[in-house]
Amino acid sequence: MTTVLPNTLRNGPDGRGRFGEFGGRFVAETLMPLILELEAAYEAAKADPSFQAELDYYLKHYVGRPSALWHAERLSKELGGAKIYFKRDELNHTGAHKINNCLGQILLAKRMGKTRIIAETGAGQHGVATATVCALFGLPCTVYMGAVDVERQKPNVFRMKLLGAEVVPVSSGAGTLKDAMNDAMRDWVANVQDTFYIIGTAAGPHPYPAMVRDFQCVIGEEAKAQMLEAEGRLPDVAVAAIGGGSNAIGLFHPFLDDTSVRLIGVEAAGHGLDSNEHAASLSRGRPGVLHGNRTYLLQDDDGQILEAHSISAGLDYPGIGPEHSWLHDIGRVEYVAATDKEALAAFQLCTRTEGIIPALEPSHALAHVTKIAPKMGKDEIILMNLCGRGDKDIFSVAKHLGVEL
Amino acid sequence: MSRIAGVFAALKAQGRAALIPFVEAYDPNRETSLTLLSGMAENGADIIEIGMPFTDPMADGPTIQAAGRRGLLAGASLHGVLGLVEEFRRTNNHTPLVLMGYLNPILSYGVEAFCADAARLGVDGLIVVDLPTEEADLLLPDAGKNGLDVIRLVAPTTSDTRLPLVLEGSSGFVYYVSITGITGTRTASAADLARDIPRIRAATDLPIAVGFGVRTPEQAAVVAQHADAAIVASALIETLQRENVDAVLRDVKALSEGVRGARQKAA
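Predict the joint structure of the above. Result:
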């Protein structure tokens, strides 16, 4: 039997919202009509040039796009191999890539006449980005956040409150991102008429995975053009961290058909892949259904969802966007993992050599870069998505390093 | 005729609606669930719904969430739930049992094996909350092959044009989620039901059960005047938490009297 590969990997999802066997729309009937309405509204917006023009305006003047492409020369030298470039999405307004998606979704919410916004958040970056665009457009905003995350991300909780959002701590389950998402869905089901749910990652029921990806593809599209300008060619390797996978799919998607570019997603290995305390759904999970989509999940033998663990609240999720599951199964993207310790070391290395404090999320991507760069030639190029800045993490990093602030 | 169809046919002849109480499996332990199942059947339950605990019950309110957590802590699993059904069937072969839960544990068990085992051990119907019509082809063939009714949820958000699609391939009864929201929170009014139930009747000949927010005998009576069954879950779980099994059975009896009185009044 021979498998005929499609001539492009960028056509997904299909009419049922599936990437191969992953994705779909696994929601209760109460939400189904809303999901269908959202899909229709998004398709109409995509086809309307004025929607893209409006989004471009905000991305340029409010977010500060395009974000820079930075040749990390001292880091490259220190690692002694490949030439390393950072796509600097940490320079965006609010300090991470999350705002790209939030702007797209809130403009869609406005088009649909929705008057109230809800969101879930893990590290608080998506919550801050959502609260920010809500302040910008004058819409009330409720953010669900796991009680444990509220505790370990206090600065972001305060930011959201300053921005006018109501932050609801969620204490069901382990009180992290997964539980926040459950409660956001429960809010949505109770407030179907006026509420728009801004999901922060490329997961959830169709059309969210495709829509979030589309809004994040600006990362990869810019990086591709900037790379051609800087080097006259595409990178050999592109690397990004994966929690739900929105920054990674945004970087990877524009490169999917460029077969010369190796794509590597880095999951959070927590205390180690064999420790049972990690967030590596692709490396250690199996396919199942959670939060509206079929995808790789951390689960026990009975199909109960397991708690994820990562030093990074943004990666602390037992699932992954469905398109990543598909890219994993067809082998187009390699998925590896980095531990808490490796991420902490990379965090410090980047700060010391480049004067850039990265978030703990991209520190996982950087940890993998430190493993592969020394083995590569000096004429080879690695492109890494530096998707968030680390100011929010200095307290937890200090704690892990045994420093009292 | 399936057990479920049989019950509704008999009740139609008597001119009354059904009471469907809910038991979250293993809350707080297996023995309690077993006692509740038998006791409910003896105290006026016409059909019993058994909740299959899941870590992430997205459509459920705080009460059923907490019950599910207690069930999981007590060791509930899908195998365990089926074992409960098997044991109940040793003494009761007439009360229909409907399992309600979420898709992932069923996928993990294997859809084919689960449907075969469930039917063999005495389950009559399945309600899978996060399996809308658009994805139902995953379950329908195996459920059908094993004679299991697949009971569909209809919500206030389900439009008239969507109703036929949602009801396609459903059997047993239709579960009307009478409010937009999660279980055990708001309650639909008599006026809501008078408006909504005829809309569904126009689209199906199946009996219509109303759930989400039905708590008291009075509310159950209102439901019974408009629909064919009242489903009560969160209120019974709260009684079990606050008091004990006897108190739950007392409530079931009162609910059943509410349902029985209603249709006579309406007739």
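Residues 208-231 of chain A form the longest helix (24 residues).
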